[in-house]
Amino acid sequence: LVSSLEARATLTKEKQKARADRVQIARIRSDKQKDLPGAIEAWRRVQSVHGADHESFEALSELLAASGLFPDLTLHLSEEVARESDPERKALLRRSLGEVQEQRLDAPLDALDSYAAAGDWHSAVRVGGVRHDDSALEIRVLERLVTLAVDAWTKGGGEFPERTADWAVAELAQRLLEVG
């Protein structure tokens, strides 16, 4: 069935029908065959041939997460952020990117950048407050948080970046005192 659908999609002149056949292939691979790598490949084909849209973005995001392919998921989210024009959805995507970076990749500096770009200062403070075995990493995280918050504050970002900068400076001073 999959090969027949692909053959039909290749031969048809109607783009919507070709896309529908390729989407059906992706769904067969994920839902019926439980073939996550095959489904990921099929959704990527849908995007490369027919362009990315919300349906393909969501499907591919779920499959990448279910497969534990978190570096690929961050790239996928970053590409969607770059394509998105709606500020609210862009902020939501950046928050999601920050969550993956923070919780799945243990990349606090990247997570800070994503959360700050989303204007999610509560999450940025949470990342800044995490203790690590590496005190140098803690200090780099706090220094980055100070920089991001001050930049947002000076660009008229409101009270949250200001409060975040105040907290981060105090926290950074405490951590520097601890390491001597």
Helix and strand arrangement:
Elements: H1 2-11, H2 15-32, H3 36-50, H4 54-66, H5 70-83, H6 87-103, H7 108-118, H8 121-129, H9 135-154, H10 159-179
Helix pairs in contact: 1-2, 2-3, 3-4, 4-5, 5-6, 6-7, 7-8, 7-9, 8-9, 8-10, 9-10
How would you describe what is shown here?
This protein is mainly alpha-helical and 180 residues long. Helix 1 packs antiparallel against helix 2 (15-32), helix 3 (36-50) packs antiparallel against helix 4 (54-66) and helix 9 (135-154) packs antiparallel against helix 10 (159-179). The mean pLDDT is 95. The chain starts with a helix and ends with a helix. It has helices spanning 2-11, 15-32, 36-50, 54-66, 70-83, 87-103, 108-118, 121-129, 135-154, 159-179.
